[in-house]
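2024-03-11 09:14:02 INFO worker-7 job=invfold-0412 stage=load source=structure_tokens
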């Protein structure tokens, strides 16, 4: 099977980068007969650098815009429609609906963007992948009328390079000495955002000054959205009885973080909300026992030895820490943990491959191709302006602007989408030529405009039928079906779009 993995580049969300790279690492653990052919797909210079740095995880690296010509069976992930490929089977990815549970953490425009993009991912493609059961349940509550048979859960695991499982006690001792960390400690590896709830740990230690425990927190104490939150943590850390039991590492390297994780006796995860916690998965891999906030996703993850506490009750965590530290649970050796985790990762890889095969089989270009989804979504969203809190004129303009960005390098798909919308008999159809087609081409490079003009529909019906017959006799594959649908779209292209552009 041929799988395309889209390499993200977003400095504000490196979790997305690591998510894709971990999928590649995970797929490499499959036996030779099950391993797919992996292509890293890139659409920005920074993404190309990331792909090149991790080239050993893929069989090839190619531009994302070439996805249709690479004979791919499955392209993943797309967190919004502009990240979906044209002419290849693909699946959306909805990590979580944190924007619905904690809207105060997101500006209104970001809430609207996620709502509109996730909604189309939930109903448009051949498959939509969710990181947790909670994410599926949240989506079902928001859109009870949507079909759900194509919704799939993929619990992504932590995947480490081979060297990670070698004895690294020397590295751990070196890093511990650098930060003056004692031999026995618990660890927290989260950004210091308010919903990560570090404050509860510090408050629990302040409430139990006699509690003999040391907690290491990696990262820097900062949350630009809520500066008062960081100040509250620093205020408690000014107390000597709290400060001597807490180590704040500030920003450290990934290798330093992993060295500290390897040496910990257990972990604490106090978050108020998680999509699917990478930190919990990394702790699971090492067989670390831990204390977790009692939220649905943590119950769903539930690594062995988990103890749950109320994330809104300081005494609940303080009591959990007291019981946990009274008799620290044993943890397996690195070798035993690695062997057990290898089985878990391979199982996750097979689940991912099942989703890929499901998507490739279900993919119908006329319904699920990115162009078809955009052509259907744009008129529907236009009609909905003002009828839903998140569907404002401004939100629609941003949504359409994102679509134009993805079409700027795909003039043939722009022509097909313009044709489909023009034939839709919708209120948006009369405006799409100007708002979508001409607005996209106005900012496209000259060579892309020329490709749009050169893209000519099959005008002879006999020639068209002959082409379709040849395709129908070809091997029945997602790519063959995509080519057939492409010819049908091409035949329906409206000449007035091209004539208007020439004029």
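2024-03-11 09:14:09 INFO worker-7 stage=emit residues=503
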């Amino acid at each position: 099977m041929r799988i395309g993995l889209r390499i993200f580049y977003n400095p504000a969300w490196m979790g997305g980068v690591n998510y894709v790279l971990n999928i590649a690492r995970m797929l490499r653990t499959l036996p030779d007969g099950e391993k797919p052919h992996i292509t890293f797909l890139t659409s920005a210079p920074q993404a190309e650098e990331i792909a090149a740095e991790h080239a050993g995880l893929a069989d090839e690296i190619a531009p994302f815009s070439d996805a249709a010509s690479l004979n791919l069976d499955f392209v993943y992930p797309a967190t919004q429609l502009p990240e979906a490929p044209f002419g290849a089977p693909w699946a959306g990815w909805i990590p979580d609906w944190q924007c619905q549970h904690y809207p105060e953490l997101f500006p209104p425009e970001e809430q609207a963007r996620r709502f509109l993009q996730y909604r189309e991912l939930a109903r448009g493609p051949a498959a939509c992948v969710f990181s947790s059961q909670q994410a599926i349940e949240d989506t079902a509550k928001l859109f009870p009328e949507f079909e759900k048979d194509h919704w799939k859960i993929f619990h992504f695991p932590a995947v480490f390079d081979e060297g990670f499982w070698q004895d690294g006690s020397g590295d751990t001792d070196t890093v511990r000495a650098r930060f003056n960390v004692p031999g026995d400690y618990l660890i927290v590896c989260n950004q210091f955002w308010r919903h990560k709830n570090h404050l509860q740990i510090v408050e629990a230690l302040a409430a139990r000054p006699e509690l003999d425990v040391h907690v290491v927190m990696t990262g820097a104490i900062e949350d630009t959205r809520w500066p008062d939150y960081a100040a509250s943590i620093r205020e408690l850390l000014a107390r000597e009885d709290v400060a001597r039991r807490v180590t704040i590492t500030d920003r450290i390297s990934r290798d330093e973080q992993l060295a500290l994780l390897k040496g910990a006796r257990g972990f604490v995860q106090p978050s108020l909300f998680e999509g699917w916690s990478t930190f919990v998965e990394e702790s699971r891999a090492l067989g670390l026992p831990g204390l977790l906030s009692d939220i649905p996703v943590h119950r769903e993850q539930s690594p062995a030895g988990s103890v749950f506490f109320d994330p809104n009750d300081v005494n609940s965590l303080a009591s959990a820490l007291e019981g946990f530290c009274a008799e620290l649970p044993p943890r397996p050796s690195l070798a035993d943990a690695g062997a057990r985790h290898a089985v878990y990762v391979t199982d996750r890889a097979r689940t991912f491959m099942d989703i890929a095969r499901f998507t490739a089989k279900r993919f119908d270009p006329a319904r699920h191709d990115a162009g078809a989804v955009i052509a259907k979504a744009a008129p529907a969203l236009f009609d909905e302006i003002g009828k839903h809190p998140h569907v404002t004129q401004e939100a629609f303009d941003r949504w359409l602007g994102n679509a134009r960005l993805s079409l700027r390098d795909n003039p043939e798909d722009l022509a097909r989408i313009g044709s489909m919308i023009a034939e839709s008999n919708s209120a948006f159809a009369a405006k799409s030529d100007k708002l979508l087609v001409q607005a996209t081409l106005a900012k496209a490079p000259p060579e892309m405009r020329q490709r749009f003009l050169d893209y000519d529909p099959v005008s002879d019906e006999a020639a068209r039928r002959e082409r379709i017959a040849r395709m129908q006799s070809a091997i029945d594959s997602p790519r063959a079906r995509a080519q057939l649908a492409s010819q049908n779209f091409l035949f329906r292209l409206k000449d007035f779009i091209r004539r208007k552009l020439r004029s």
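2024-03-11 09:14:09 INFO worker-7 stage=report msg="Residues 489-494 have pLDDT under 50 and may be disordered."
2024-03-11 09:14:10 INFO worker-7 job finished
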